[in-house]
Amino acid sequence: MQPKTLAELARHVGGRIIGHPDTLISSAATLENARSGQITFLSNTKYIPLVKTTQAGAVIVGQEMESAADLLIAEDPYYAFMQVVVLLYGHRKHEPIGMSPQAHIAPSAHIGQHCHIHPFVTVGPEAVIGNGCILYPGVFIGAAAKLGDDCILYPNAVVYEACLLGDRVILQANATVGQDGFGYATHKGVHHKIPQIGRVILEDDVEIGSGSAIERGTLDDTVIGKGTKIGDTVTIGHGTRIGPYCLLVPQAGIAGSATLGHHCVLGGQVGVIGHIKIGNMVRIGAQAGVIGDVPDGMEIVGSPAIDSNKARRSYALIEYLPELRRSIKDIERRLRAMEKAES
Amino acid sequence: MQPKTLAELARHVGGRIIGHPDTLISSAATLENARSGQITFLSNTKYIPLVKTTQAGAVIVGQEMESAADLLIAEDPYYAFMQVVVLLYGHRKHEPIGMSPQAHIAPSAHIGQHCHIHPFVTVGPEAVIGNGCILYPGVFIGAAAKLGDDCILYPNAVVYEACLLGDRVILQANATVGQDGFGYATHKGVHHKIPQIGRVILEDDVEIGSGSAIERGTLDDTVIGKGTKIGDTVTIGHGTRIGPYCLLVPQAGIAGSATLGHHCVLGGQVGVIGHIKIGNMVRIGAQAGVIGDVPDGMEIVGSPAIDSNKARRSYALIEYLPELRRSIKDIERRLRAMEKAES
Amino acid sequence: MQPKTLAELARHVGGRIIGHPDTLISSAATLENARSGQITFLSNTKYIPLVKTTQAGAVIVGQEMESAADLLIAEDPYYAFMQVVVLLYGHRKHEPIGMSPQAHIAPSAHIGQHCHIHPFVTVGPEAVIGNGCILYPGVFIGAAAKLGDDCILYPNAVVYEACLLGDRVILQANATVGQDGFGYATHKGVHHKIPQIGRVILEDDVEIGSGSAIERGTLDDTVIGKGTKIGDTVTIGHGTRIGPYCLLVPQAGIAGSATLGHHCVLGGQVGVIGHIKIGNMVRIGAQAGVIGDVPDGMEIVGSPAIDSNKARRSYALIEYLPELRRSIKDIERRLRAMEKAES
Fold first, then answer.
1. Is C35 helix (H, G, I), strand (E, B) or coil?
2. Do the Cβ atoms of A76 and C185 come within 8 Å?
3. B2 vs chain C: nearest CA distance in angstroms?
């Protein structure tokens, strides 16, 4: 990497420097590990003491503070740090492989310009791949599926027929988009498969993690809104609609026909039942179980999930249940004694 | 799609019409979205008001009711709707690709008639593929594995050696069947792998979701009974035996050497520990943690899982623990006051 | 399989025989199913009664006991059983396929001796594969990734660029190592991807289950220590460091930047939040939610997770909450009556 001066970095992120503008920065590291020539950041106040002792070349912070290193003060330190990391390292460099003769592209498929299609990729009939897309080995694009521009599909990611991906969609390795929804009509004890005729629509800038599985809709489409990011081994049920700019942390799961608003955050292993409505900007704590509608802006935790302020105290009290029961038994004993004395 | 008259649909499902038998139906939609020319259904009584205002061409219901649309009355409306959807749309149409020269088939493998083997498929030595099977790109069939007739394996599904699949088994993309069970003998702090010599047996009409993983048995086989349907990213431990016609919703997990009877339903993210016995027709609510045997017909929820009637009230009370504790403290204070007064 | 005498098996495991040293053993089975000519083991005292009635040829036990079969007494019966199973069956036999011409190996990649590279495998530029490695169909090895000796990667396992695998590492089918960490800087409501420049390091003898996903680090590496075994559909967050000889049962998940010591055991569906420190030899029960540091040797269960002795009683009392509330209401009523009487 070409080193940059702290002044260059400050200009790049629109920040100001407390210290030496000509400090050379060649790489980034965590606050704990950063050494001379490295830049780091502070985003959590609990690490303020580390800033006083860091051996970093520079620290990106939100305000002036005592520091062992040069400071780069930025309005949004984590965002500024992201900008610096991109400047220093760039995003992943993809091998410019062009169109592999070992890929299997249906004659009726349309491949845009400047795409890189690796060996062992399959693109089905009538599928449309936008410009600048990268399909890694083992990727499967079903018939009539459609990708926008600049999508990156990592090895063995699968897109079933007729699904739509916007621009700049990323599927990590082994992700699946558009498999059949879990829909059966049970008649006389036998589960009969219902054709799943809806699609999956991933809007622009959606990212799906490894091993995650997004079911196609039974009748309506399953939709993941623009800029929503989904972690690893997450499952989304058929016909569920997730708004833009949500974050779904690994192992979260949402059943079918649910709707989520924009900017919701679901923690790890959160479960959401089907057919409910979650508003905008809702925050759901890890492992929560959501079994009813949730209004805009609410923060919930627990299984069953309740308001987080209430829940933190409530769930913490489970530990004291044996004690509470002992208190009740003690009270009953004393009460009986008094009642006896009275009679 | 070729439109059908409501009379044709009624005949097909064995139902009767209240309204116009010659109403033309060309597609299916949800009760909320259905318009003229579309058929929908009512399976949940909470949506009865929608029937009064629907713009659908026809609604499949279980009994006569006030409706803005023609009614098709069927004994089992959801099943009838499934039949109608199959009639209108059919199941997925698979490209008739035949045997791809880009597949890698061991000379000693046996492939049945009318199979479609896509590029980049591997079929190992001595493997047997029944008639009419469809193996999508990236599918791997291990040595001596055996598939019945009319199986569909979607892209990148993997079947390890010696596993047995019955007829009409479906593996969704990126599903894995027969990987090693999680079995180690820990000796002096080191985990030694135990060869997993059992197989996985998937009986007829089993379906396995995307990203799911069914471990092969250590000594005994892992068995999934006829007609059981398993959702996405479900894991089944080594040597577990699941009876016929169960439903395992996405992200459920069962540890090793458990047995389940027939017609059990496991909700999303349910966890079942190993070496226990779950009876027939047991229903387990989402996120439940099952840590002991469960008798036939029981419905359980919660972690730890208990009888659902009891559990719904019990788990709902967690929210009121701070209040209960305050009540106890208040009682103790009043009791102390009275005791003091008495002495 | 070539049958062995019980004497041969006893010598092999360093045990002693009570019974007939010349009993012939040709296979292994569970205590419940073992018949004449088969060997089995007792590791759980609850099955002692089965030893008295077993039809097995021999049973491996830890001490003398009443038995219907010959006994092989070993210090660590389960470990001895593992040794016997390996002797009788061996580990999986891999087809000696050599280097498939249908694999796609970058010219700059280095492949060791005695490797078996199946069709449809991709090995990227500058990647290094040690001696004796087996790469099954659909495996992807990214640029500059490095595998030690004798690794086995099952079908469709994916290793992203620059990741390091030690010797004897096993990836089960559809496992993913090194996908991007779930890291975004959210600025004015938009999630900006942070380049994930760390790697994943899997030390010697690590095994990763099917569908599992190990994120690469943002800045620091994600590290899985020597001999640690990870089950199916487990997710490990970016920058997390797991010590040697841990066991992570299927569907467990650990968020980013956590550290775990050695010999920890995480049950199924355990969730661990990020940025916490779990000590050595910690045991975490199935479905537990770990939200803070855990000292060495502790055993915890529940969500939120607490000391297991306390927790088992505490969580079991949730079932009795309605009863406790009734008691409190009853007490309040009686107390009011007494207070009234006094006044």
1. coil
2. yes
3. 41
